[in-house]
Structure formats: structure tokens, C-alpha cells
Amino acid sequence: MLKLKERCACRLSQTRMSVFPRAAHRRTLACRAMLPLGVPISVLSDSYKATHFLQYPKAQKMVAYGEFRQGFNKDKADTRMVSYGIRYLVENYIAKPWTKEDVEMAEAFYKTHMSPAYTPFPFPRPLFEKFIRENNGYFPVKLEALPEGTCIHARVPVYQITATGEYSPLCTFLETLLTMIWYPTSVATLSRRSRDVVEASFARTSDGGPASPLVEGRLVDFGFRGCTSVEQSIIGGCAHLLSFKSSDTMSAAFYAQFKLNGGRPVGQSIPATEHSVMTSWPTEAAAMNNMIDNFGTGIYACVMDSYDYCKALSEVLPSVAARKVDRGGYLVLRPDSGDPTEAVLMALNAADKVFGSVRNSKGFKVIQGCGVIQGDGIDLTTMEKIAQAIEEAGFAADNVSYGMGGGLLQKVNRDTMSFATKLCHIIYEDGRPADIMKQPQTDTGKFSLPGVLAVKRVGGVPTVFPADSGEVAQHENLLRLVYDKGPLEGVWDDFDTVRARLAAEWSALPRTADNISASLREKVRQQMALRGKVPALAR
Amino acid sequence: MLKLKERCACRLSQTRMSVFPRAAHRRTLACRAMLPLGVPISVLSDSYKATHFLQYPKAQKMVAYGEFRQGFNKDKADTRMVSYGIRYLVENYIAKPWTKEDVEMAEAFYKTHMSPAYTPFPFPRPLFEKFIRENNGYFPVKLEALPEGTCIHARVPVYQITATGEYSPLCTFLETLLTMIWYPTSVATLSRRSRDVVEASFARTSDGGPASPLVEGRLVDFGFRGCTSVEQSIIGGCAHLLSFKSSDTMSAAFYAQFKLNGGRPVGQSIPATEHSVMTSWPTEAAAMNNMIDNFGTGIYACVMDSYDYCKALSEVLPSVAARKVDRGGYLVLRPDSGDPTEAVLMALNAADKVFGSVRNSKGFKVIQGCGVIQGDGIDLTTMEKIAQAIEEAGFAADNVSYGMGGGLLQKVNRDTMSFATKLCHIIYEDGRPADIMKQPQTDTGKFSLPGVLAVKRVGGVPTVFPADSGEVAQHENLLRLVYDKGPLEGVWDDFDTVRARLAAEWSALPRTADNISASLREKVRQQMALRGKVPALAR
Q: Boundaries of each Nicotinamide phosphoribosyltransferase N-terminal domain copy (chains A, B) (predicted)?
């Protein structure tokens, strides 16, 4: 791996953008360490972190790591997760060179940040200036991370930060930014768990089974507007696209295609109405006829509850049926209110009546040229409920898609899988090393792992080892260097590769596993003996 | 108001940045319509919206508006909210000029976006090219919005979009972006509701009462790492800073100060330890002594649960007490696990024992030079519970602060106050006008308001009127033009002004109010007569 300290980090991601005009390159390249919002990277941290350089003991080296402490929504029966999102953080923040101006801007800010009375707040100005001067502005830490899309269980470190020498006290300054990996990993895990629901439904009721090409289109990302910000939509939307190809979140589909996949398409969608479209016409039939005229040979969707959902199914739909059939395409009916399960069944029955259906080899009905997408009130639970209900009503999974909005991109949080970054190792000024372990007796689930860590597959299961036990050879360690006091070349896989990794690893991984090695367990025991009680280890 | 079509929209927000070096200006100015992430504004929408230009009937004019349909967390007893966040969206997205390159990038994307098989997806290329050619790249709609910080009840439009002539079908293209106002408004409302809890607690137990200068520091934003993205932290963190001055989310404190407040300080914090600091020392006492040595004359905080919270309070704290007292500052103890209420009471009792307390005029104890901040598990409910519990234990509100992380910046969603944008008016190609109203019988709470809207104070309450009833004079209308096919000058108030508006309006507004005018109610009745049933209006 070649170090690229001299080159702007932007270039790394720019190389894949060659379909675009040169001016676009220039503009992106112009944004170095400073965000376009005018906020310098020197304040992209929690306030208290700016004061920590004065709070750590003098040290030669400090190491910290980040981990999810629990399965999705505390699920103990399935603690699998999809580690994802480190590339975004490194490319857009960590690997951006700082400039003197960034420090000047920080100075202007910190000088009135202390409470009360807006007096000066301490910050590590000399250290910032040192790495700007001596390291081309690149933040002076080493960062290891799991390959994007790696499937793991809770408690496996997803990244590890090392800072040495004078820069040791900066070890956790980036924690605030890096901790944000909780988000893409949570969405990627939720999306993949949703795919399990879809696959199971196809396995039971569809001729194509779980490998049907329809599966990858069956959960559509409707979450853009339910995001807090455009940046979130990109990060979360890409995480969803790891398990599905269907997305209306174009910010993410664009980013995944052109920034992460060499221009090869990633996300896709279909023409569809919204209420504003349906209500802008004098009648819903007029709106639907216009859809048929414009898009009737392909797949297209109409929302059906603008006024009276029952009437739309029983009167409007039959009134446009002949025109629809004549064009030959596939119409997707979208309920958008009421009980989700009931709404889907109503639409299936109405469509069956109007367009007819055939029975597949498993005995389930497949409606001719028409299906349903439920995009209101969808989460993992309602998806499962609907899949069950349509099966009981005799309909194949082929007939139904799901749209998940806020449920997919916003209704997760750092507690969903309990993410935290903690210090694990220090070498003091005098050369004395110490493994470090938080072990609060008030919440034994919040203990952290002691010592520098490594991750190796044992029986296919990514398992955590002490890095100093000699059990993990460098080439076996899943924690790979992704940043070394500057960006590295060749550390990122393209999006298709990440998708393939996730697809292969997820199903191969048992739902739960004992993933703490005996040697690490022993180290934990030693730490406990130093401090207190037994934390809640897997066994 | 002067139109500034010829000038880059970035300049508007740049004028306040004059404390910074010129190069910083240049870099920000370089980012026009394209995000630094390389995603053009031409795809910052839901996929289906790109197809709507083919789905609307031919029209001379179309109008849509955005509203929150319910109070915070469906609270029917208090439907107040703080309208906030339109400035961010306008300055950073809506008012950015598009370029030909943005359209070329869109073309490259849309040409493989159709499902299945990655075929071409329709998008309004001719309309995009037209406004780039004829309107300097500015999106050709008119946008009205409430002044930032305006306190309203649910159902008051927070913005209204108008598109005319050939551009009518673009009326709702920006809906995806604009709808994101749900987020800052939800956080601003949650933060202000939290302040109500703090003020009530001070009113009951503190000498200073609800107007105590301590109040504005009593809810600290701990939410940066719990955000999904840096951009979210800025948007949500600023919303919190409207009601409090205390924040560790420096991205937001910086943005509020330098981009929204002419450089005048907005947010503040104190030096504080984290677990990594406490555990990096051989003992917690050593870590605390170091804090006292470095920050002991001011306010500073130590987290107390790294190993054994009880022991830290009963043994470590007394062991550093003399040194602490000697320095004269204010030590804040931070529990971080266990039951929040219990943890706070334990710390208060321990501090009382170690440092002593005095009784204030209301009979409550104020500990000498020491207090507690609870930053784990905090939301509105736990805040109220703790405030109640410390009162029952005889401690004044002066002793306790709160830190809210994910609870403040992430655990809200578009359903928290039910935000939606809907079309309300159209003038068809032939000149025939029609008011438009979504009224799903399957969820009467989801009805929208018909016709072009205006907002006027009636008895202090922002009330919704039909714009065509003649009841609202232009100068009375709270919906003010903030973008008119290009940025406008002088439409934004600085942050201090917005803070003051919120402070004045929130307390003056009754918790609930009938805010739909009789004339709009009549219009709703007429629409219902056309379509169906009575929606769930306030009366």
C-alpha cells in the first residue's frame, strides 16, 4: 500500500468520477479539510474532547477501539450485523488534510467557548500546528478497520485507532466522527434483516424461491425526506443498497454509483404518483389514465388513498383496467393509510378480481400484471405480518413490495446496537504498558475489551483476540490498515464487491456465536481481578 | 427586498464570515449547486419526483405547502412547536444556482436508473436546461416561509411553494429537501419543551426561579456522536441552541456563531473527562487530581462510573476533596450508567456529605461548589422524573444539569409531529382554478388544507386563512417570501434575534388553540362536499 501524503485525499475518490466534466473535479478538489458549510474539521468533535490533551497522562502510545455491544434492537437470538461505513468517514473527513486556516478558525471559535461567560476554552493548538507543519496536515493517527460489508457478531471491534509519541493524546479526538459508523452499520443490518423476511416469504410462496431476481427489488428506500439531512440520506441510502437494488433516495443511488462503484449502476426505481399528482387531476381515473398513457408498457405505481381507498379499488381501478391491460405493463397499487396488512389484502383482492391471477407451482396466486407496494407504516414487524397475511390469503410473495421510509433511514439510533469507542491500551511515558478496561458495576453490559485487539475467523466466525498473544498472523487479521497518518491507496473495494461480500458472509454466519477468544477472556479476567466484578461476557 | 440573481448565493451567507482568511471564502464559494460529496442538486429528490413533470395536468400555476399535523409526540394537550430550519435549506440547497454540468451529471445517472434492467428513467431535462439558461440556474419557484423561531400550533403552514407557467410541474420537485424541515423544527420544539421542565424545576426549588441565568445552561447537547452525519449535527445542534447555551456539539456551535450570528458566541461548554481519560490513569483519584490541577478554578466535570460508581462517590471523591476545595472551582459529577434518578440522588447525597450545602430561601439544599450532570438515558420523561426526585429529596434545581444525546438529536422522526407537504391549488392550462385537498377516509388525520394559504395572528395565535378571502393583508401575513426564483437579500434574522423571538413567543402562546379560520373551515367543508367525509378538524 502506497502512502499518498502529498496528494489531496479528494483525488482518491475522484478517480472514479471520470464520466464528469473537469470543472466538477476542480470544485470537489477545492474542498479540503473544510466542509462546504464553512465548518473546519478542527471543531468536528465534542467540546470536551478538545480538553482531553490536558487530561491524559503522559504517554508513548494510546490505542482505542469501537464496537457494537449488542445485536440489532437487543436481539439475543441473532447478533449478526453488517460492518459498514468506515470508507465514507475516512474519505470525507479523516483523510482530509488540515490547513493553518483551519486552526485559525478553531482559535476564533475556542476563544469564546468556555462556560460561563464565553471565555477561552483549551484546545491542542500546538499539536494541530505540529501535524500541519510536519505531516502535510494529515491527522497523525493510524486507523484499522474491518473490510466494508464484513458480517460479524456484536463485540467485534469495527475499528481501532492508534496514536503514538507526542500525538498520543489525540488518540480519541476523532472518536466523535468515527462513532458515527453506528449509523450505516445499523441501516445495513436492518436492511439485510429485512431481506431475510423477503427471502423467507419467497421461499414459502414463490416459484422463484429465495433466489428469485425479484427479491432484490422488494424493499424500496422511501426514506430521503424522513432523513435529517442530505448527508444522512447518502450514508443511510448506500447502506440499504448493499442488500437491495430498489431505492427512491437518489442522493445515495448517485453516490453509490459514481463515488463507490466506478459508475456502474447500483440503485433503481420506477415512475410513480404521489397524492399531489392524483389530486391535481379532476378525477383519480384521469390521473391513472395519464400514467397508463405515459408509462403503461413498463412498471409504474399509483397511490390509491387520496379520497376513498375502497372506492378507488372497487370503482376507479376497474374503470381504467381495459386501458391498462391494453398497454401490457405492470401496475403497482400503493395504499398509504389505514392498517397496513388490511390495506395490502384489500388491494390484492381488488387486483385479483380485476386482472385475474394464476396459481404457481406452490399453489399461491400470482396476479396478472398488477401488484401492491405498501410504503406506509413499514418496519421489520409489519413486513413480517404482511408477508404472513398474504400467504394465509393464498397470494404469492411475487405480488407484494415494501417501501420503508423513516423506519429504514431514521428510526435507528446509537442504542439500537449499543455502539461505543473506548480506550484499550496505553504505554506510559516511562515505557510501562497497561491494558485498559472500563467495567462499570452499574451496567455490566457496558464493559469494554482490554488491550490492543485483533480479529480472526475461527470456524468462519470473526473472533476477537488480544493482538499481543501471537495467535493472529498479520495476514489473518480482519482489522486492516485504512489510514496511516495519511490516506492509503487501494484499501477500498468497489460497491459491487462489498455487496458480494455481504451476500456471501451473512447467510454463512450462524445467528449467534461465541466470538471472544479464550486468551482475551483470560485478559478480561485479569483486568477484573484488578478492579472488580465479572462483566456480562457471552459465557 | 432586492433580488440577487446575478450573485452567487453563497455570498449571502459569506458576508458574516469576515473573521476568516480569504482562502476560506474562496473555497466555500467554489461549491455552487454541487455538494462537496460530488452529488448534484439535480438528483436531490425522490426518484418518483423526477417523473412527475409527465404526471401533472397542464397548468398555469401550482401551489403546495408543508405542515406539521400533530403536536410533539402526538401531545394533544400542548400542540405548540418552534418553526425552524428553512434558512439552512434555502441557503445551502434551494438558493444554489444549477449549472449545465449538474444536468450532465443527472443525465449520466438517470439513463440507467429505471427498474428493472437499469434502463433510462425520465427526468425534466428541458425544464432544467431552461432555467439554467434563462434564470441563471436558479430553481424557478417562489418560496414563502414563517420567520425562523416563530411559535405556532400544529396545522400552520411552515412554507408554501408556488410555481407558474411552464415551470408549474416543478412545484413539488423540491419537496424532498424542504420536507427535511421536520427535523430542526422537531429538535427545536423538544429542546424548548425541555426548557419548560427546567424552568418549572427552578421555579419550585431555586432562589433564582425560572428566570435564573443558570437555566440556559441546564440541558447540554451531548448528541454529536449519536447523529447519523456531521450535517445533521449542525442542523439539530443549532435547533437546540435556540433554547439553551450549553452544547458539546461544536459543529453546531461553530455554525451558529459564524454563519448565523455574525461571529457572536452562541454555544459554550466546560472541560470534562470521559471514560478513556479516567481509565488511562492508574487510579481514578489520579485522574481527578489532574483535572483539579488543570481546571480546578473553573467549572469542570468528571465521569464517575468507570469501575465502581458507589466506591467512586464514597472513597475517591472524599480523597480528592481537600485539593478540590483548595482550588475553589465547581466540580460536576457525572454518573453514566444505572437508573438515572437513583444515580443522580446518590451523587447529590455524596457531594452533600463531602462538600456540605446551604438551604436557600425556598428551603432546598444547594451543595457547595459541586453538582451533578446526568447524561445517560435522558429524555423529556427522565428529566421530569429526576427533577421531581431531587425536589422530594430536598435539593434545589441549582445542583443538577442534564445532558441529552441521541434523545435530543436522533430520537425524533418525521412522524414525531407528522410532517407532510401537499399540493393545495392549481390553475389549469385553460385558466380554471381548483383548490386541492387530500382527504383519505382511511386516515382522517392525514387530510390537507385546500387553496393558497396565509397565516395571521388572531389574539396572538398564528391562524390559517385562505389567501384569497381578503382577510389577511400582505403585511400581516406571517408567511414571508424567502426565495423568489433566486435568493433574496435581508430575509434572515441573526441567531440572537431568532432566540429572542422564540423566547418571547413560546410562553405567550396558549398550549392549544383553534387556529383554523372560519373561512378556511368553510372551504374545507366545500371540498368535503365534493369528495367525501368530514376530516378531523380541531372542532
A: 42-142
